[in-house]
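In response to the reviewer comment on reproducibility (Comment 2.3), we provide here a single inverse folding case reported in full, input and output, so that an independent group could reproduce the run without further information from us. The structure tokens appear first.
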């Protein structure tokens, strides 16, 4: 059996086209969605992510602002910029690219962003709303995965889902979103005793581990849906996921590739959150006498 491939590039292009049309309608009302991105240091991977985010904004008709700081910048400088952007009514989304250098307390920086502009969905207030099943800005990567599952026609009600990884930005919110849609969710992590025991009985496996080709075909139930969140750089410079695509695709029913799977959807959901924030700002503006 060879799995059907869930093409993240194709889905992202389709959703971004729709976002661009909605942005154009908003611009016609006098509000241009605007994302401010803060990059600290010279981590090459972070620079690429930021470049891609800025380019995606411009393609969708958004305004984007980029603030670069050297690796040794004082946290106070960055916190002051966040404060300024929080107050700027023309800025709808603020994103600080992670990881930050050692002198920063990442939690403090993320909490400094106004929850109303937290388009990454990392603020504790937004995470709390997500946990309670209330409207919030959802973290972009797991939310992109949910869109892919929807488009892939994957039934979640009653499905056994296994999420590998429990980070605040991927694993935990992923588990909550699957749970909210009726899946029975197991979250595995580095202390899980028998990972394959869990993955082998799962209808859906989401791998967010950060280890190249970690999930192999023999760990997957025939016909299962396999979502690969991982982005790993191999010694030869090529990208690969947390799933061993070659062996997994022979067993799975549906699978996402890397690159071209979850990655493009992450940026797409960032655009979607920024558009939503701009829409809220426009509604507020119209209702203010
Ligand atoms: P983290 O390093 O924060 O979390 C990794 C998780 O994997 C941890 O919960 C860890 O467990 C768990 N883990 C580590 N080893 C094992 C093991 N042997 N068995 C089971 N679980 C294990 O990573 P992130 O969540 O930030 O990212 C995960 C991957 O997704 C990375 O490759 C990252 O690059 C990628 N990523 C991709 C994005 C995209 O747009 N496609 C966006 C964000 C991330 P423990 O908690 O016990 O340490």
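Designed residues, in position order:
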């Amino acid at each position: 059996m060879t799995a059907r491939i869930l093409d993240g590039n194709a889905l992202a292009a389709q959703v971004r086209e729709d976002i661009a049309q909605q942005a154009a309608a908003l611009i016609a009302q006098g509000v241009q969605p605007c994302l401010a991105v803060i990059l600290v240091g010279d981590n090459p991977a972070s620079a690429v992510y930021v470049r891609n985010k800025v380019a995606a904004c411009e393609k969708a008709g958004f305004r984007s602002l980029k603030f670069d700081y050297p690796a040794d910048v004082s946290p106070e400088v960055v916190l002051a910029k966040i404060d300024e952007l929080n107050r700027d009514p023309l800025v709808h989304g603020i994103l600080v690219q992670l990881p930050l250098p050692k002198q920063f307390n990442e939690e403090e920086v993320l909490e400094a962003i106004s929850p109303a502009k937290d388009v990454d969905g990392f603020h504790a207030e937004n995470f709390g709303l997500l946990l309670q099943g209330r409207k919030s800005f959802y973290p972009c990567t797991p939310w992109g995965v949910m869109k892919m599952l929807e488009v892939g026609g994957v039934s979640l009600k009653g499905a056994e889902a296994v999420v590998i990884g429990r980070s605040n930005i991927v694993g935990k919110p992923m588990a909550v979103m699957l749970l909210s849609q009726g899946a029975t969710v197991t979250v595995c992590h580095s202390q899980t005793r028998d990972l394959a025991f869990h993955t082998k009985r799962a209808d859906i496996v989401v791998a967010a581990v950060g280890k190249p080709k970690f999930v192999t075909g023999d760990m997957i139930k025939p016909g299962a849906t396999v979502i690969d969140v991982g982005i790993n750089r191999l010694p030869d410079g090529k990208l690969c996921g947390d799933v061993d695509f070659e062996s997994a695709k022979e067993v799975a029913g549906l699978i996402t590739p890397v690159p071209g799977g979850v990655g493009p959807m992450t940026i797409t959901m960032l655009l979607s959150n920024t558009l939503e924030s701009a829409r809220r700002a426009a509604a507020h503006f119209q209702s203010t006498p």
